[in-house]
Design goal:
The chain contains nine helices and no strands. Helix 2 packs antiparallel against helix 9, helix 6 runs antiparallel to helix 7 and helix 6 packs antiparallel against helix 9.
């Protein structure tokens, strides 16, 4: 069966065929997050860097035009309402088409937000505080950034599902680049407007990478094994 005949937004099963990719994503994500978490707990050198970068960006945010600042703030919506709308539309579409594997991939992608909630309350790191904030001040803990966690899992998943439907290598690269730029824009927006420190954002990317790698690999592997079992049972039934 060709990739196009499989239907729109179908999983290429890459992580089921090559689970080592999922494990590599998981290991890299865990290592990066662990390094940042240790630095936070031990009040390491990156904490001073965080403060310096945050203060510099805050001063810059106060000096730029309102139009440019509002454009940068769009990253908040891409990482919040945008993710909710995207995930909701994908979930409804997969239910209607009965694409259960893709539905579970989307649902588990949202699970990254629950992982963020758990980790953020474990580390309980305060967010940047300014006398003159440039955006709405959030009071919950900020390490890791929940927006960047879900940005990786959902926008990354959309790109992953889109690629098999595109025959042109050029447009495949375009989709990948756009997805990466959206993820980076979300993280930059959170950092620039004072919602997070730099290490919060990077930790969010790391958690998203690790979660996507291990969870998507697990789901694809489960469905691949189930399909093989169905085919084997069908062959046995046909011989009887």
């Amino acid at each position: 069966m060709s990739e196009r005949s499989k239907g729109w937004l179908r999983s290429p099963d890459l992580l089921a065929k090559k689970p080592q990719i999922g494990w590599i994503m998981f290991i890299i994500g865990v290592l990066i997050f662990t390094l940042l978490a240790v630095n936070l707990v031990l009040n390491g050198p990156l904490i001073k860097m965080d403060t310096s970068i945050t203060n510099t960006l805050h001063d810059t945010a106060l000096s730029i035009s309102k139009g440019l600042l509002n454009f940068i703030k769009l990253g908040w919506y891409f990482g919040n309402e945008g993710v909710m709308i995207l995930g909701g539309l994908m979930g409804v579409y997969f239910i209607i088409r009965r694409y259960w594997k893709e539905f579970w991939l989307t649902l588990v992608g949202f699970g990254g937000s629950l992982l963020f909630e758990a980790l953020s309350h474990i580390f309980n790191r305060h967010r940047p505080v300014f006398a003159v904030p440039v955006a709405t001040t959030l009071t919950g803990p900020g390490f890791p950034s929940g927006h960047t966690v879900v940005a990786v899992t959902l926008y990354g998943l959309l790109a992953y599902l889109l690629l098999p439907t595109i025959s042109s290598r050029f447009w495949k690269y375009v989709v990948i680049i756009i997805a990466v730029l959206i993820m980076l824009f979300i993280g930059f927006s959170r950092l620039f407007t004072g919602g997070h420190y730099l290490t919060d954002v990077i930790a969010g990317y790391a958690v998203g990478l690790a979660w996507a790698g291990v969870s998507y690999m697990t789901i694809e592997t489960y469905f691949a094994r189930r399909n093989r079992k169905k085919m084997e049972n069908a062959k046995i039934g046909g011989k009887l």
